[in-house]
Design goal:
Oligomer: heterotrimer
Number of domains of chain A: 1
Largest interface: A-B, 46 and 50 residues
Largest sheet of chain C: none
Shape of chain C: globular
Strand content of chain C: under 5%
Number of domains of chain C: 1
Order of helices and strands of chain A: HHHHHHHH
Shape of chain A: globular
Number of strands of chain A: 0
Distance between the termini of chain C: 34 Å
Radius of gyration of chain A: 18 Å
Radius of gyration of chain C: 20 Å
Structural class of chain C: mainly alpha
Number of strands of chain C: 0
Order of helices and strands of chain C: HHHHHHHHHHH
Chains: A mainly alpha (226), B mainly alpha (492), C mainly alpha (321)
Distance between the termini of chain A: 61 Å
Number of helices of chain A: 8
């Protein structure tokens, strides 16, 4: 306990923001309105950008400022805007994608966080960065993104879960190694951007072929009765 | 170095060019020309490496392991482009595709080739990830090109499952970078494979083990390992046939290549570590590989769609290759490298033939394809010979590689040869029980022959036969060098 | 610890409890005042609750024919447990004789006892609204208690004790720190407090529509001094939660040792904190609409999740490896 209190205020703020990113992941799991999901995802992007900027100022690695700016523009502004625009065009912006069994999902999410903590322990032991404790949280954000993918039925909320997963991966890169080489980060950002655009186009394809965005209805291909 | 630049630049520029070209007929021709130019550049690169050893060392690195894969990619790209020209013209003529989508198809084709070549030639593991994800993105809209509900579903599954899978691989890459940054001073160098391979013994074993698990699960999803394979039969069967050919023939290979590159690093790290199982990577690969092999072989019997049938055959062979790389040792590794080559050639040839067969019969359902050898002998024989080749009959190359693998398994894991042989028998039975009525049955009335472009098939199968009978010297030398690189000792 | 058994210490404890009970109606009135001003209404006078209590104590008690002794005893038990709970909380002085008893879990237990008798009394008379109110109150309590205990666990892990005085002293002695576990525990406690004291968005304390009531439905049948005791108990409970939030998470100003100057300063600090907290509560009540009953479960699940993440943050981020 004394270890945490010896840290300077900036580093405590970074760890607090990391905890808030985890809170936003839980919040994403719980939202049932499509527009609320996208807004929470945008806030998660803002929190991430803020965390990265603080890590940049604390560790003196100035390329992280660029990463933070990239995250802010891409994950907090562009992708939510794109998703909202596509959702509005499809007329699904005010839809509900009800979370089935919220109690079980909540408990599963708690169990996931504990599991990720156990998995990340050997890695955390070797890290010398100030955010080494947050590696477990970043893995948890990745896993909670996957949990969101699994518990949702509409295509658009599944895509938000997918993007939250990518958020977790970015967070992992920031906490474990204070960012990857710039060329790799730019490549990953480009891939995420293209993926978001293709998803946007894809919603229309799905809707045109099955008249709904409930992806549970995409079930013609299976190993039985074909 | 310039050969490498040309190899990468041609498909990249080609993709942009084809995106802007409105004419469909001209687009197909330009596609073929670009693929031919790409093959020429790749062969020049291969000749450079043959002459002078490795090329690159900075952000790009072409050594014995990936040079023949690069040439193979370019070759299969050209064959498929040649096949795709009349095939897609026919598809457009019967109204399945609009001109705009043809433009998308041609541009994505070259874009996909670019990402494959980038993934194969890069030295930077992060760029490898970016290129593999880029390959998924380039092809996802192509899988749903026909816009039927089934193809949209297949593309959605492909996108989500491969996306989630490859996200795991990114986490593994982050952990790898984490382990590397502690050992290698400059952060820009810490993701370069050649540098990491030199320092493999110093990487932290615990972190590398966890990183390898994530990377195997991640890239393994793209290889099609069971139980992460669900997207593969759908994506390979619902897209246009040229897409199936390149996806089965090329993408699976590149993903496996990525796994093996990482395995080399993990083996080095675990061998030097104390208190960790040094064979962890190999055992995991063996487990997944064997599971994929057996499950796919069993599923072969249930298939009712001809393209799904051969997709499961792809899963089975990739499982076999993963198993072989997992067993390790010079014999199995040599066999696996040979298998990568011959499987790619045979499978793409098979899919081209299957494309023709489904055009002849007007359907992809196995129940309704009959009497191909009567209606159009070239197609029937092509399908028969291709299936014989892929089932592992001598004198084709697949037999040689499977024989090497069986020998290696008998040396190190004797009791595993039983499931291997059993699986091979089950797969053979599954393939031929569907094949026999398709090729030799009574053709339905009104089935007419079509215009074909089976020359690429003949070339591929001829190469596979040649590789089965007598591997050319330079290729054997490359395989041996790669074996030496991967396992530490050569075969020849 | 020995000087806590001295008569002076006990006198101080009694004085602190009396002060607590005395300011409870004032705090409730302050919240009502700020809320009225925010809603552009003219507020009632600040000392109105005292006048109401005095009026009610003078009135005759009317009992239903079906009322059992439980109904007559319940107000005393409810008010008694509330006052007892108030006595174990350090208000202006940290070291009180009840310090050894001042466990957070004891607090939760006392609230549960009071709520039990409240629900029994409501069921006792046999009216439909009483039954409805009792079932609703118990539902809210069943959801709020796990969340409350999770907050307690988080606090206990941070301070290594569930004793209120120890927790406050621990926070006073540490340097100013931004701890994710305490931040999330604070947020959770705020949500739980709103649910347990029956404020908007869980329950409207000023409603007269019986079907929307939770707490009000339970006290519909009481009159005279019984009603006065119930009202006082509700006001004390609200003040308890406010003081808990203020003193557990922002205890600066509280007197560690009894001394006239320190006590006066502590009183002033507490008054400022309660005034601020009351204003914030009023603002929140004005800004948010009352939730439908089935959404209260989600509200409390959010509180539980926040407390859970707070605890996990402590283990993952703050505990020494």
């Amino acid at each position: 306990m004394s270890g945490y209190l010896q840290l300077p205020l900036l580093e405590q703020a970074i760890l607090t923001l990391a905890a808030l990113v985890l809170v936003s992941s839980f919040a994403l799991l719980a939202q049932s309105r499509v527009v609320a999901t996208i807004h929470v995802f945008a806030w998660q992007g803002v929190l991430l950008a803020l965390t990265t900027a603080l890590v940049a100022s604390d560790s003196g690695l100035y390329h992280l400022y660029l990463s933070a700016a990239l995250t802010l523009v891409l994950k907090a502004l562009f992708i939510p805007w794109l998703l909202v625009r596509q959702a509005r065009r499809l007329g699904i912006l005010r839809d509900f994608d009800a979370v089935l069994r919220p109690g079980v999902t909540l408990l599963a999410a708690g169990a996931v966080v504990i599991f990720c903590y156990a998995v990340a322990q050997p890695v955390e032991r070797f890290s010398r960065t100030l955010t080494h404790d947050a590696i477990a949280l970043s893995l948890a954000v990745v896993m909670l993104g996957m949990l969101m993918l699994v518990t949702r039925r509409k295509a658009i909320t599944q895509v938000v879960g997918f993007m939250a997963l990518e958020n977790g991966l970015f967070f992992a890169a920031v906490t474990a190694t204070h960012g990857m080489p710039m060329v790799v980060e730019l490549g990953i950002a480009f891939d995420v951007l293209v993926a978001a655009i293709i998803f946007g186009i894809f919603f229309f394809h799905i809707r045109d072929s099955i008249d709904t965005l409930d992806v549970d209805q995409l079930n013609r291909l299976s190993e039985s009765d074909r | 170095m310039s050969a490498l630049v040309w190899t990468l630049l041609i498909p990249a520029v080609g993709a942009v060019l084809l995106a802007l070209l409105p004419s469909q007929r001209l687009g197909a021709l330009v596609n073929v020309v670009l693929s031919a130019a790409g093959l020429a550049a790749a062969l020049y690169l291969a000749w450079t490496v043959l002459d002078g050893g490795e090329v690159g060392g900075g952000q790009f690195y072409v050594d014995a392991f990936n040079v023949y894969l690069i040439a193979l990619t370019a070759l299969v790209g050209l064959s498929t482009a040649l096949f795709s020209r009349p095939y897609m013209t026919h598809e457009a003529a019967i109204g399945r595709i609009t001109p705009l989508r043809m433009r998308l198809y041609h541009a994505s084709f070259q874009g996909f080739l670019f990402t494959m070549l980038l993934a194969l030639s890069t030295n930077n593991l992060g760029v490898l990830w970016v290129a593999l994800e880029g390959a998924t993105l380039a092809t996802v809209l192509l899988v749903s090109l026909y816009r039927t509900p089934e193809s949209v579903e297949a593309a959605w599954k492909y996108f989500i499952l491969c996306g989630v899978g490859i996200a795991q691989a990114l986490f593994g890459t982050v952990l790898l970078y984490f382990a590397a940054a502690r050992v290698i001073g400059q952060p820009e160098q810490a993701l370069l494979w050649s540098v990491l391979h030199a320092h493999a013994g110093q990487l932290e074993p615990a972190v590398m083990a966890i990183a390898f698990v994530f990377l195997l699960v991640g890239y393994g999803t793209k290889v099609g390992l069971v139980p992460l394979h669900n997207w593969l039969p759908d994506a390979h069967s619902e897209g246009p046939t040229p897409m199936s050919a390149v996806l089965s023939g090329l993408l699976l290979n590149v993903a496996l290549y990525a796994v093996v590159r990482v395995k080399m690093l993990t083996d080095g790290a675990l061998a030097a570590g104390v208190g960790h199982t040094p064979q962890l990577a190999g055992h995991l690969m063996m487990g997944f590989g064997l599971l994929s092999f057996i499950v796919a072989g069993l599923f072969l019997h249930r298939q009712r769609d001809i393209k799904r049938l051969f997709s499961y055959s792809s899963i089975e062979h990739m499982g076999l290759m993963t198993f072989a790389f997992g067993v390790g040792g010079p014999l199995a590794t040599f066999g696996a490298l040979l298998h990568m080559t011959v499987h790619s050639l045979t499978k793409s040839a098979l899919f081209i033939t299957v494309g023709h067969a489904s055009q002849v019969a007007g359907t992809q359902a196995i129940d309704r394809i009959r009497g191909l050898i009567r209606t159009q002998p070239t197609v029937g024989w092509g399908l028969l010979v291709g299936s014989v080749a892929i089932a592992g009959f001598p004198p084709f190359g697949v037999f040689t590689s499977e024989f090497l693998l069986l020998t290696a398994t008998m040396q190190s894991w004797p009791w595993l040869t039983v499931p291997l042989l059993l699986g091979l028998a089950i797969a053979f039975a599954g393939l031929f029980r569907h094949l026999q009525p398709m090729v030799f049955g009574e053709p339905p009335p009104g089935q007419l022959p079509i215009a074909t472009s089976l020359a690429p098939v003949a070339v591929h199968l001829g190469l596979v036969l040649w590789l089965g009978l007598a591997i050319p010297g330079f290729l054997a030398r490359w395989f041996d060098q790669a074996t030496r690189l991967i396992t530490g000792s050569g075969l020849l | 610890m020995a000087d806590h058994l001295s008569p002076l210490a006990w006198l101080l404890a009694l004085a602190q409890t009396a002060l607590f009970v005395a300011i409870a109606p004032l705090f409730a009135s302050w919240v009502k005042r700020v809320k009225s001003r925010l809603q552009n209404r003219c507020p009632p006078p600040l000392l109105q609750p005292y006048r109401d209590l005095r009026r009610l104590f003078a009135k005759e008690v009317l009992l239903a024919e079906t009322a059992s002794p439980v109904f007559r005893v319940a107000p005393y038990v409810v008010c008694g447990t509330a006052v007892l709970a108030a006595s174990v909380i350090p208000l202006v002085l940290v070291a009180i004789p009840m310090a050894a008893m001042a466990d957070v879990i004891v607090l939760v237990g006392l609230f549960a006892l009071g709520r039990f008798f409240l629900a029994l009394a409501a069921l006792d008379v046999g009216t439909p609204f009483g039954g409805m109110g009792a079932s609703r109150e118990m539902t809210v309590a069943a959801l709020a208690e796990p969340a409350m205990l999770m907050v307690v666990f988080t606090l206990a892990m941070v301070a290594s004790s569930t004793n209120l005085s120890t927790i406050i002293l621990h926070t006073l002695q540490q340097p100013l720190a931004l701890r994710p576990s305490l931040l999330l525990a604070l947020l959770a406690l705020l949500l739980i407090g709103i649910a347990e004291t029956g404020r908007i968005p869980v329950d409207n304390p000023a409603t007269h529509l019986e079907l929307t009531m939770i707490h009000e439905a339970l006290i519909l049948e009481f009159s005279g001094r019984h009603l006065a005791l119930m009202e006082l108990a509700a006001q004390v409970k609200l003040t308890i939660y406010a003081v808990l939030v203020a003193n557990l998470f922002a205890p600066w100003g509280i007197a560690a040792q009894p001394g006239a100057g320190a006590l006066l300063f502590a009183a002033a600090a507490l008054a400022a904190k309660l005034a601020l907290f009351g204003a914030l509560l009023a603002g929140a009540e004005t800004a948010v609409a009352k939730m439908r009953l089935f959404r209260v479960a989600t509200f409390l699940a959010v509180a539980f999740t926040l407390a859970l993440i707070g605890m996990l943050s402590f283990v993952i981020l703050e505990a020494p490896a």
